[in-house]
């Protein structure tokens, strides 16, 4: 592959050591999950610091498309946000505007936060607008219908396929490899590529991740910290009981 797909994973656990282990394992990005994990702002703050200490880029999947949640995650020093359940162009524009300072958006402005190095530099605002990533999750039929408009006008940095919710929306709950889900996800990735927008996707298995990379995904989020921890323990128990 001429282009290298970034490998990410989701972190649901409130453990700075897990974030460090993700970095040491060689992942390119960690996605701190405030939608499905028990992570509030105090926990996210510590996990972002842990990621920074290991030079690991960190995105925060916020719990919802909420301007305060998006701004707070970015103030903590996250490199960007992953916003779930984008179902319309209005949803997309709302998420992007919440992550950008005026005049590009309406993110609350405070240059004395971690993201700004606590320094109060007025130059930071323009730099943050350029460097902060906003990835939008397409997870349902409404999002699929609005995809072309989102890609054309929302100014997002990336589109991310949420195949678990998508499988429910398409009538095959939990069947991530179902042809209907795969076709829809592949269509999202192709549309993002055509628009020059980064495309990401979640995969639970390594072979699926490889297939999405071959199809042009710029980022594949492979499993979760809970998923890999359980598998590691299961592998150890299985190996022991077979001896």
TrEMBL record:
Where's the HpcH/HpaI aldolase/citrate lyase domain?
9-228
Keyword Transmembrane helix attached: no
Taxonomic superkingdom: Bacteria
Q: Which UniProt keywords apply?
A: Lyase, Metal-binding
Among Pfam families, the record links this protein to:
HpcH_HpaI
What EC number(s) does this enzyme carry?
4.1.2.52
Q: What class of enzyme is it?
A: lyase
Q: Which family does it belong to?
A: Belongs to the HpcH/HpaI aldolase family.
The protein depicted here goes by the name: 4-hydroxy-2-oxoheptanedioate aldolase
Record organism? Amycolatopsis viridis
Q: What is the lineage of its organism?
A: Bacteria, Bacillati, Actinomycetota, Actinomycetes, Pseudonocardiales
């Amino acid at each position: 592959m001429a282009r290298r797909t970034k490998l990410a994973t989701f972190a649901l656990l409130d453990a700075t050591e897990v974030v460090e282990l993700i970095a040491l394992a060689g992942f390119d990005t960690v996605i701190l999950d405030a939608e499905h994990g028990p992570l509030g702002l105090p926990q996210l703050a510590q996990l972002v610091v842990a990621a920074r200490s290991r030079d690991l880029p960190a995105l925060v999947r916020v719990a919802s498309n909420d301007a305060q949640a998006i701004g707070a995650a970015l103030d903590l020093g996250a490199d960007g946000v992953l916003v779930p359940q984008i179902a319309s162009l209005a949803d997309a524009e709302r998420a992007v505007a919440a992550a950008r300072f005026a005049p590009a958006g309406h993110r609350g402005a405070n240059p004395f936060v971690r993201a700004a190095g606590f320094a109060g530099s007025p130059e930071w605002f323009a730099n943050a607008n350029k460097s902060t990533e906003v990835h939008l999750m397409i997870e349902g039929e409404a999002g699929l219908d609005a995809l072309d408009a989102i890609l054309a006008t929302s100014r997002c940095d990336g589109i991310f396929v949420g195949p678990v919710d998508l499988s429910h929306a398409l009538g095959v709950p939990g069947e991530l490899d179902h042809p209907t889900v795969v076709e829809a996800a592949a269509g999202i990735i192709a549309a993002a590529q055509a628009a020059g927008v980064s495309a990401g996707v979640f995969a639970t298995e390594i072979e699926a991740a490889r297939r999405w990379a071959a199809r042009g995904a710029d980022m594949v989020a492979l499993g979760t910290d809970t998923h890999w921890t359980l598998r590691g323990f299961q592998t150890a128990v299985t190996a022991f009981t077979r001896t």
